[in-house]
């Protein structure tokens, strides 16, 4: 019986896999480099084929050593998790499996490796862990805030009464410090309570530019610093959201960007666009489209070790900061069914991307 012409060849199957497939000869010369491998490594097949694996993966010696052990010692790896360096993009978490390759006579002809992208899985795990952490911290913060609020009011009231009765004016400097610090603590307590409270959103279809323009005007007037550059997409449709809450989010994010630039020659910009890379299914089985609002600056940037903690409540590097601004913004955007993403490098600035659904609700 003749084979059907509709049966795909092994080459086509390998080419259409979502996992990266790379094969080498016993001398480590690359013989197979599928499309998924090209996307993951950001290295073209034309450049990879015929070259030694050590040249292609110069920054990932672990992979070269694994393949060598597979060929020479017959050691097979299964779902071995590592970090893969790429030519342009940040490193990618991968799961790697290796196998020996034999010809029909049973002679060893090389080895192959299957690489699976774990970015989505790691993001999901991080998101779940973050939600659990925020839920715990929220409950803890609410209890602390209520315990602090009453004695704090007593401390401030006593300091104000003492200031009125002091005859020695020089001592009022100390009561002023008490009052000032009590006010600062009271502001932090209010933010803690705001962080822990979940209020029903008053969603409606908004012209997001009105919100952004109002925020930018306020920040430029209060903070000084560089003028904020607007790069708006005029075709952007209405965004679904709570105007007051979204104003709170963008006020915090734009202020952070302006403070990061300081009084230098840096730039702060706010840009918008429709997202075409992905859609999600919202409630009611409707496919939701998203608008992206990006706040970027060319300021000092955020070190990688701090970037991982940026959404954690009470984490801050700013003197006098509460560390709740980004955490509250993150929670508000999640309540809107959106996403908040931050990318930053020290000395190169920061990009904050807010994704909000469009056209889901009408009020």
Keywords:
363 residues; alpha+beta; Beta-Lactamase; Heat Shock Protein 90; 3 domains; six-stranded mixed beta sheet; five-stranded antiparallel beta sheet; 13 strands
Compact summary:
The chain is of the alpha+beta class and 363 residues long. It contains 11 helices and 13 strands.
Compute the average pLDDT.
Answer: 81
Q: Helix count, per DSSP? A: 11
**Largest β-sheet summary:** 6 strands, mixed
Structural class: alpha+beta
- The Rg value, from CA coordinates, equals 28 Å
Task: Give your account of this protein's structure.
The protein is of the alpha+beta class and about 375 residues long. It has 11 helices and 13 strands. The N and C termini lie far apart (about 65 Å).
Give the topology, please:
Blueprint: H1 10-15, E1 20-24, E2 30-33, H2 35-41, H3 45-48, H4 53-56, H5 61-73, E3 80-84, E4 92-102, E5 108-117, H6 119-165, H7 172-196, E6 204-206, H8 208-223, E7 228-231, E8 239-241, H9 243-261, E9 268-274, E10 280-282, E11 286-297, H10 304-307, H11 325-335, E12 339-345, E13 349-358
Parallel strand pairs: 7-9
Antiparallel strand pairs: 1-2, 1-5, 3-4, 4-5, 6-8, 9-11, 10-11, 11-13, 12-13
Helix pairs in contact: 6-7, 8-9, 9-11
